[in-house]
Model the fold of this input.
Amino acid sequence: MALPDQGVCATTLSGVVYDPVGKIPLYNAVVFIPEGSLGPIAQGTHDCNTCSVSVGQFLAATPTDEKGAFVLTNVPAGPSVSLVVQVGKWRRETFVPNVTQCQTTQVPAELTRLPRSRLEGDMPQMALLTGACDQLACFLGRVGIDPQEFTGPSGRGRVHVYRGAGPGPDLLGGGDGPAGDCTGAAGPCPLWSTKAALEAYDLVALGCECGENNQTKPDMTPMHDWLSEGGRLIAIHDQETWLKNGPADFQGVADWAATDAGAPGPCHPDTTYHEGQSYAKWLAAVGALDSTGAVSLDPEDVSRTVSGVNPETTRRWVFAGNTGDADGGADGGDADGAGGPVETLSVDVPVPSTDGGYVTPPCGRAVVTDVHVGANGTTSTAAIPASCTGGEMSPEEKALEFLFFDFSVCVGGELPPVPPPPNK
Done:
């Protein structure tokens, strides 16, 4: 490959980065030309390192915008130029043919999507708990994860399946089995009973079990400690129990409703902070907002368990109110306060102190949402992934997809700055 004389002209690549299925553009993905071979990406979460995933050495790099678009300048020319797209531990290398010096080459969409399987590139190691009151497993399939990546905990797939209480759907038609048993019938859940078990994973996604089922979660400390090490949690509806009934610092991140009063709607993205503004622009770009700017959620799929959030510790993503409303929460808001009930929130862990500072840099993140993705108001125990169908994503699935792929990547080997308090 030949590097052009940048004082005379620039050789440029442009395109759009997509999710594995190749349909939904991704915000803040890193696109780069590697210098040399790519280094390995370790699986699992074992210590708190805010720069545990790096792109390594590169010749050129750039992030994508809210429409998933990128323009990569000062790239080498050649008949086959290596190009990498990366989001956290999702990483795929392809080769762009016929990059002409001093010209802009449009990269085909097939070359700029994330990997669908571990055979196509790097993927995080994920754990999925199935619940009968949502279709979280099918959401992962519609994102584009290959069915063969759904295996039991002893399998080699990147999505290890565990059955939740209720019971949740079983594993069938994927790879190696059987699914892990977290129904309580076979003793302690092998997923969350110890921090060591959780450390095998980069992300844990917990489907709604149609109830908190705290009898299967007698000790919530391992989950808390794993998140403090850098784990990522997505918790649907009743899985808010991990925060609501967890250690004291988790309990204080939100005002938990005494009863589930159902969806008040309409719901809007919170645009009172920079990342929320990008979220709203992305939702508009992928067709997840209606004509009024509200997120197009199916009312039958939306519950109401969070009255407000603590603005010093918690980021509000989707809430029942107008986009400019202040946060309801521990310092004055409640179910009737400014901003209204919160449908999706996130907490960086370790939890920030109550004065808005950080005892240590944040490592992990917990996302809690009262939106039952793809459930359409019904319960299902059909085996996954065999029962899942393709088709277009619903707006509620798109609203979760942004947070599912909201992973940071370190560029240039430097630590990212400590973020400001979530809603300041």
